[in-house]
Specification:
alpha/beta; Rossmann fold; 2 domains; five-stranded parallel sheet; 9 helices
């Protein structure tokens, strides 16, 4: 079973924007329907870009311990914006996986032992669950790169090979 199979997920705007720019936001929303959490900070960021997420439960920070964690994380990781901090805080306090393509947010989540996945993991999960074909996953990733996502050529090639193998099974 894939690590994204049962967990709730906390979304960061970086991954949402990448799926939005490739016209594949409906796939993203469908894969995590009923278990997608979004901090109010991420909701605000996406709203400024006029991106609407369907099926995401807004999870505002309401408890003192959440705010204390948010403030401490902001001190320790000053390069993170409010959206990333909110998404990490929601993941931590809701026992959810963090979905982000932001390198600093991924590193912070790893440091905190929060499960984290990015676009590649989401696309792999989509293929494993039959919601997406291998070639479609490769196309989405290539489209993300064309839209400005940074993924090394080696990682892209590894993903292509993995998706070809998935198509043979």
């Amino acid at each position: 079973m894939h690590r994204l199979e049962t967990a709730s997920v906390s979304v960061d705007s970086s991954v949402v924007v990448d799926f939005h720019l490739t016209g594949s936001l409906a796939f993203f929303e469908g894969v995590f329907a009923g278990r997608m959490l979004m901090s109010d900070f991420v909701e605000e960021e996406l709203g400024k870009s006029q991106i609407r997420m369907h099926g995401a439960e807004i999870a505002p920070l309401t408890k003192d311990e959440e705010w204390a964690f948010f403030a401490e994380l902001r001190k320790r990781k000053p390069g993170l914006g409010s959206g990333e901090l909110g998404a990490i805080t929601v993941a931590k306090f809701h026992n959810a996986s963090l979905l982000t393509n932001d390198r600093q947010a991924r590193q912070a989540a790893d440091d905190l032992e929060i499960s984290v996945s990015g676009a590649i993991g989401i696309l792999e999960y989509g293929v494993e669950t039959g919601k997406l074909s291998g070639p479609a996953a490769v196309k989405i990733l290539e489209d993300m790169i064309r839209e400005g996502a940074w993924i090394s050529e080696d990682l892209l090639e590894l993903f292509r090979r993995k998706m070809i193998e998935a198509g043979r099974e």
